[in-house]
Amino acid sequence: MNKFEMKKLIAYLLIAFGVFVHLTLAVVSTSDETTVKKRALAILGDAHHSVFPQYSAIVRQLQEKGYSTDVILDYNVRFEGLSEYDIVVLSRYAYNDVVLCKKYHFNFARGKDNLWLTSKQEQAFEDFVKSGGCLFLHHDGIGFYPKGGAISRLAKAYFITHPPVGRITVKPVGHFPELTKGIEPFDVVDEEFVVEMDESQTGVFLESHSEKNGRFAQGWAHKYGNGKVVVLIPGHDKTVLFHPMTKQCIRNVIEWLDQ
User: Fold this and answer.
1) pTM
2) Rounded to 10 degrees, what is the CA torsion of 65, 134, 120, 146?
């Protein structure tokens, strides 16, 4: 092979290498662009629970975990689109505050039959979880939903009432150690929920104690169909939501649902 042919061969090889590199980078770029980001939906806020602390304590942690998050503050939930999400957060009680305010002036005894969602819409949450979705029911996410309805079935608990807000000690218990990672007993001024629940049907991982009221479940979790459900009660106000132990609880919940 003479010098001219050698130079020609080298030129062809360089061109071929350049084309190979270009195509490889194009494939990588296309792959990056088409990577589907994990998605979360947060349905937040009611008359007695401010959205900003919920957003700061829960949604920001989802975003830090890599989730693209949609947040709904009104009642405009696209129930048929729940399957598009990996995690759904519900931190809102069942009552329709617009009706309660305008018609009943927050007389809950008269307005309790006015809910922000129908039984069919409530069923959409159960269908979502059964199909493999993850549901995070935070604080009022179990509040006032119908007994025997989809939310109470998913929570494996029916909310009855709560005693007056008071100082309680919250501590981890034996179930789901991954959900109590980094959690030490802590004192907060918060609500304790009286619920109708068969604890043998779920795993209580957090409980509270107070001198006045005794013991209450504060966090429980279970598999449901092909999906997962976590109920976490602490977080009536920003002081509790911003407590380091509460934030760690939320971080653990997201980690567990993300697995």
Assistant:
1) 0.86
2) -100
